[in-house]
Write a structure and sequence with these properties.
Elements: E1 4-7, E2 14-17, E3 24-25, H1 33-42, H2 44-57, H3 67-86, E4 98-99, E5 108-111, E6 115-118, H4 126-151, E7 171-177, H5 182-186, H6 189-197, E8 199-201, E9 204-205, H7 211-220, H8 239-242, E10 246-250, E11 263-264, E12 267-268, H9 278-281, H10 284-290, E13 291-293, H11 294-302, E14 309-313, H12 325-340, H13 343-348, E15 349-355, E16 377-379, E17 386-388, E18 392-393, H14 394-404, H15 412-415
Parallel strand pairs: 7-14, 7-15, 8-17, 9-18, 10-13, 10-14
Antiparallel strand pairs: 1-2, 3-4, 5-6, 8-16, 11-12, 15-16
Helix pairs in contact: 3-4, 7-14
Length: 428
């Protein structure tokens, strides 16, 4: 009978049947990146001890590598490459049960600082072993790239844009969150509810790789003069100059001031685009009149006193910039769940939730056409629920807001855009 060696750990179990037959090797998936790192680094000593003990118990030390062995090794390496590249475990992608056909014992060591090391017997030269290991790693990397590409959800094929209809709503509330991929946001509880009960723009894209250019583009139709998050001073048109009533409600911003500091606690200026324009910076009274803290939004919304356009900016803890996306989702539900149940709010307000830009965790998103694709939903009684496949971006969203309020385009970006169509209920 074969001796069975079982070594367990919190994140990795290696079961090897030694002596004359090796039946199977099981490498269950780690639950998280942290568990994987523990397995790769902290368990080295335990794996080495297991190998030494099993080799000592085994009658035969001859190692014969076969295609089955290599397949198991390849799948193991690919699994961890996938985890390191995507940042998430992928338990269903690659199976880790393989049949090992060997007359002796294959020694596996998870090496500190390296990852995997396979030590073959002396009948293999160091050069042969190194060459084989390099080929395995290269094959695993290519496989990981193909699998990540294949399992990255591609955006739907773009349809022709539908017709824009003037909504009944007389007010627009735009909420901007941060740095998250569309699919990840869709899986959250409240964001997912808005997406399934509103018009979900499944093929919506941000414009830039930094926050501030995206925010500025959403209110001015251009990123000119803004290439990063440095404080800006822009002497050109913006949405605040065109509307009779508007407010920017920024969480953590000191109400009653015109504060141009870059950060105050968890509030940051780069997420309030109106503060980047010269006419706002040079007119403190105008600035104080139109930019205030988020608490005032709740007062105005529940009292049905919102202006025509409201920009809602959570702080860094609640916009998914510094904290997990679930925290932003919980914040959104806490502050908007009661509002969307209010019949007056649903009738009078078009609620829009978008993200400034996509997350950067998936290196291969661009290969699937998902480059800077962000979650965006329009919600209210004027909106027909459903998924919209037409490709849109921040300029198209601004053009939609301009069309609602009968405002002419302000720059090349919104001038070349089209209002979002095909989502509006027919007027009765």
């Amino acid at each position: 009978m074969s001796d069975r060696v079982v070594a367990g750990s919190r994140s990795l179990a290696v079961r090897v049947w030694a002596r004359y037959q090796c039946r199977a090797m099981y490498l269950p998936a780690p639950r998280s990146r942290r568990d994987a790192m523990k397995a790769l680094v902290n368990e080295h000593q335990g794996r080495s001890s297991l190998a030494r003990w099993a080799i000592k118990r085994s009658k035969s030390r001859q190692v014969a590598t076969t295609r089955d062995d290599r397949a198991v090794v390849l799948s193991f390496v690919a699994r961890y490459l996938l985890l390191l590249v995507t940042g998430e475990p992928a338990p269903a992608l690659i199976p880790y049960t393989g049949v090992l056909s060997c007359p002796g014992f294959v020694r596996l060591t998870v090496a500190r600082g390296v990852g995997l090391s396979f030590f073959f017997q002396r009948r293999f030269s160091r050069r042969e072993t190194a060459t084989m290991f390099r080929k395995l790693l290269l094959s695993a990397l290519l496989l990981a790239m193909l699998v990540v590409w294949g399992f990255t959800r591609s955006p739907p094929a773009s349809d022709e844009p539908g017709q824009f209809r003037q909504p009944f709503a007389t007010k627009v509330v735009l909420v901007i969150l941060e740095n998250s991929d569309s699919d990840a946001a869709y899986r959250e509880k409240f964001l997912g509810f808005l997406a399934t009960s509103g018009a979900y723009l499944a093929n919506y894209h941000a414009l830039a790789g930094h926050s501030q250019p995206n925010y500025v583009a959403l209110v001015s139709g251009s990123t000119d003069g803004v290439s990063d998050n440095s404080p800006a001073r822009l002497d050109r048109a913006h949405l605040g100059q065109k509307l009779k009533s508007w407010m920017a409600y920024a969480e953590g911003y000191p109400a009653g001031t015109c504060d141009l500091r870059g950060a105050i606690g968890r509030y940051v200026r780069k997420h309030v685009p109106f503060l980047s324009f010269a006419d706002v910076q040079d007119n403190p009274d105008f600035c104080r009149q139109h930019i205030t803290g988020f608490d005032q939004f709740l007062v105005d919304a529940h009292a049905h006193r919102l202006p025509s356009f409201s920009l809602v900016v959570p702080n860094l803890d609640h916009d998914a910039h510094d904290k997990p996306l679930r925290d932003a989702d919980a914040w959104l539900e806490t502050n908007f769940a009661d509002l969307i149940r209010d019949p007056t709010f649903r009738r009078d307000v078009l609620l829009i939730v978008t993200f400034d830009e996509a997350g950067k965790g998936n290196w291969f998103a661009g290969l699937a056409g998902n480059d800077n694709r962000v979650f965006t939903v329009l919600w209210g009684e004027d909106v027909l629920p459903g998924e919209v496949k037409t490709r849109y971006d921040h300029y198209d969203l601004l053009r939609t807001i301009e069309a609602i309020f009968d405002v002419a385009p302000m720059a090349a970006g919104d001038a070349g855009a089209r209002p979002i169509g095909g989502i509006w209920r027919q007027r009765e």
